[in-house]
Amino acid sequence: MGAGRFIAAGIVAGVATAFARRKLGEKVAEGGLGGASLWTRTNHRGEPISLLEGPAVTAGLVAGAAVSGGRAPGASAFATAAAGAFGLVDDLAEDTSVRTKGLRGHLGALVEGRLTTGGLKVLGISGSALVAAAVGTPRTGSAFGHLVDVGLNGALIGGTANLINLFDLRPGRALKAGTAASLPFMLGGAGAATGAGAATGAVLGAAAAAAPGDLGEQDMLGDGGANALGALVGSQIAFGTSRAVRWTALAGVVGLMLASEKVSFSKVIAGNEWLNKADMLGRRPVASPGA
User: Fold this and answer.
1) Whole-model pTM?
2) Count of alpha carbons within 13 Å of 226, Cβ hemisphere only?
3) Running DSSP on this structure, what letter comes out for residue 170?
C-alpha cells in the first residue's frame, strides 16, 4: 500500500475537510452562498442541522484521493467529485412539495417523463461512474472482457455511492459505514498491490475531521457528502480487487439497495445489539418518549 501514501492521503483529506468546512461556514455566516436557510435542514430530533459538511467532506475526499496514488487516482477523484456535486444539487434544489423517495421513485418519475433532482443525481452519478471506470479500468484480455469490466466497475462505483447515502439517516452512521467498507483495503491483498489501500487514508482523514460536527448533530453529510464517500469506496473496490470479488461486492450492493426499498435499515440496526452499539458510539443518547 505504501505507508507514506496512506499517511499523506489522510493528512491532506483531513486538513482539506476542516479548512473547507470553516471557510464555507464563514461564507454562509456573512450571507453568501444563498444564506444559512439554504444550508439548514431539520434532523431526526426536530433540531436545525447544517448541510455544509457535505461539500467539505467531498473536497477532502477528492484531495486525498488525488494524492493517494495507486492504479487510478484521477478516476477515483473524478468519480468522487462528480458524485458529491450531483448529490449536492439534490440536497439544495429538491422540490420538497412533491417529495419523491427512493431509487424506485426517482426512476419511476423518469419513466413518466419527470426529471426530479434525484433522477438527475441517478443519471449524473451513473454516467460519471462509467466515465471513471472507462478511464481507470486497465485493458486486459479481449475487448468484450474489457467492456464487461468497465460496466462492472461503473456499476460498483455508482451503486456504492447510492448505498452509503442510504445510511445517512442518523448522526455518524454514513461515516461509520463508509469507513468500515474502506478499512479492509488496509489489510493487504489486491488493494495494497494496486495502491487502493492508500485511499483508505483519505476516507479516515475526512471522516475524522467531520465526525465531531456529525456526531454532535451540528452537521450532516447529506446526499452530497454521502454520495462522494460511497463513490470513493466504490472506486477502491472497482480498481483494487479481483473480478470475483467485484462481482460478489456488486451483488451485495444491489441486494442491500433492493432490501432498503422494503426494510428500514434503522429498525434493523436498532434491533441488533452489536449494530446498535456501533451505531450509538459517539452519539448523543436517544431521547426517551416522554422527554
Assistant:
1) 0.92
2) 26
3) S
